[in-house]
Amino acid sequence: MLWGTTYLTTTMFLPEDRPLLAATLRALPAGLLLLAVCRQLPSGSWWWKSWVLGILNIGAFFALLFIAAYRLPGGVAAIVGGIQPLVVALLASKFLHERLTVRVVVAGLTGVFGVALITLQAQARLDAVGVLAALGGTLSMATGIVLSKKWGQPAPPLTTTAWQLIAGGLALLVVMLFCEGFPSTALTASNLGGYAYLSLVGTAFAYVVWFRGISKLPASTTAFLGLLSPVVAIMLGWAVAGESFTPLQLLGVVLVLGSITSAIIAKKPKIPVECEALAR
Fold it and tell me: How far apart are CA 19 and CA 176, in angstroms?
């Protein structure tokens, strides 16, 4: 839900045409702050695992996400991102031995359709590079979710999140310096406030609770919760920015919420018959 506030924050407070700067300032300061709090560095294999997860969940995902956002209408990018729960469910069935049921597949397809109703506009156009970037970002984070679940967490979520944010943030810093360079004009107080919110709340806090959720829930269930992002985005646009939404968009919200609910119920552990009888 916090990630759903990114679009409104970006359009209202951040400078235009600086996507990699926004991605870098979201990740790197948040990671350094969390590391200052936890004061623990990776050990053993977690040096390279943190880099792998940091690139997949943060660095590559953020960069590809912004490329897609700039080359595609938001609706098309959101729809491509909406297939992530299905990709995670498929990978989890292969590598985590989570059961891939018809109910989960139907819930995933319903979620994609709901996102389409929320975001897609009639004048939407396709761009090959943008579509590939959106698919790459979806696959990157889907793989990161599954690997995060498979490898577990050798330290509290606050610590492992710091490692990943720093790794991803450093990778983004290199790409930003190469592609965009430093800003040519000074950042305003409004810009700095927007970056601070995205870094502290939308990244540091949001990713800590996200990775904690991955450790506690099935990977595919966690991925379905990401569909709340476009729902929150459209609701904030209506409540804060004065935007209106159509009955079809409202139907899309209902379908997305139904998809998430169905996926969570599908993954709910079954109580053994003898335990159920004893409870009664």
Answer: 9
* Interatomic CA distance for residues 39 and 26, integer angstroms: 20
Total domains in the fold of the chain: 1
pTM recorded for the entire structure: 0.83
Q: Which residue has the tokens 């389409």?
A: 116
22-36, 50-64, 136-150, 242-256: least confidently modelled range: 242-256
DSSP state of 5: G
User: Could you give the CA distance from residue 106 to residue 48 in angstroms, rounded to a whole number?
Assistant: 37
Size of the chain, expressed as the number of residues it contains: 280
Maximum CA pair distance of the chain?
70
Residue numbers of the domain that contains 173: 3-279
Give the pLDDT band of residue 275 (cuts 50, 70, 90): very low
Report whether 30 contacts 200 (CB < 8 A): yes
End-to-end CA distance of the chain: 37
Q: Which residues contact 58 (CB under 8 A, 6 or more apart)?
A: 27, 164, 165, 167, 168, 169, 171, 172, 207
